[in-house]
Amino acid sequence: MTDLHKKSDFRFFHRLRVRWAEVDMQKIVFNAHYLMYFDTAIADYWRAMALPYEEAMQALEGDLYVRKATVEFNASARVDDLLDVGMKCQRVGNSSIVFHGGLFRGEQLLVSCELVYVFADPATQTSKPVPPLLREVLAGYEAGEPMREVATGDWAQLGEGAGKVRREVFIEEQRIPKELEWDAHDATALHAVARNRLGQVIATGRMVPEAPGLARIGRMAVHRTLRGGGHGEAVLRALEAAAAARGDSEVTLHAQRSAEAFYTRLGYAPHGEPFEEAGIAHIEMRRKL
């Protein structure tokens, strides 16, 4: 079915652990679950390309439908096995996209699959050509190209995209009152946005002067389905670089306590005592540049 037999054949992997509910009376993974494993990996593959699936398909004016799924079993997985599900876009035809998958326990290939998708009009489910931009994104990812770019600028340049992400994250998701989200700093701040290869804004943040030599970063927001993909870090690093370039020696931010570990990993340390802001627990954190 496929000549992809080694982990080195794949760039992308989704890691999972076999759950008790997924094994059968033979004490091995029930065969139907392997398709679920590969489908879960496909969803993560889209995230790896920095594409929020639903919004990306709307922008591309189509959707993907499975036409054929083939699974080849070599060996069985068992409960508590830690598995790496490799996925690779093998070929893009006129209207079809072929993915090959390999499920590995360590270096051992347990199960292979081939998934054939058809790009189609969602209203009629009739096939249509794969958009050139989607072809470029798929080929670019497999070639190791970056899937995002970060730009900095003022509100006039970046406000539309930055505002959309902030509205979705802070107002709609976190229920922060809109009168607390928008303030006068937007007009004077340096804003940063990360865009995917479709041009969609997937993360944002802003920076304002706090004191001589000290910059304050805030309004950090990442698209809900793309968190954990490094997009917030890319925005943060771009703002830090801008702060250093204008002579600041330190940056500060008000971190939601749920994001404290994220900022700690990036070199920030708590400064002062925790506090509440907009009904959400925060702590000030700082980092030397």
Mean of residue pLDDT values = 95
Rg (C-alpha, Å): 22 Å
Q: State the total count of DSSP E strands.
A: 13
Oligomeric description of these chains: single chain
Helicity range: 25-40%
Shape: globular
Low-pLDDT windows of residues: none
> How is the main sheet built?
8 strands, mixed
Strand content: 35-45%
Determine the N-to-C terminus distance. 53 Å
Number of distinct helices = 8
Assign the structural class, choosing from mainly alpha, mainly beta, alpha/beta, alpha+beta, or little secondary structure: alpha+beta
The SSE order reads EHHEEEEHEHHHEEEHEHEEE
Which helices and strands, and how do they pair?
Elements: E1 12-17, H1 32-48, H2 53-60, E2 63-73, E3 82-92, E4 96-105, E5 108-120, H3 132-142, E6 148-153, H4 155-173, H5 178-181, H6 185-188, E7 190-196, E8 201-211, E9 214-222, H7 231-245, E10 250-256, H8 260-265, E11 269-270, E12 275-277, E13 280-288
Parallel strand pairs: 9-10
Antiparallel strand pairs: 1-3, 2-5, 3-4, 4-5, 6-7, 7-8, 8-9, 10-13, 11-13, 12-13
Protein model, in words:
This protein is an alpha+beta fold and 289 residues long. Helices cover 29% and strands 36% of the residues. It is built from eight helices and 13 strands. Strands 6, 7, 8, 9, 10, 11, 12 and 13 form an eight-stranded mixed β-sheet that branches. A five-stranded antiparallel β-sheet has the order 1-3-4-5-2. Strand 3 and strand 4 form a beta hairpin. It is globular and about 65 Å long. The mean pLDDT is 95.
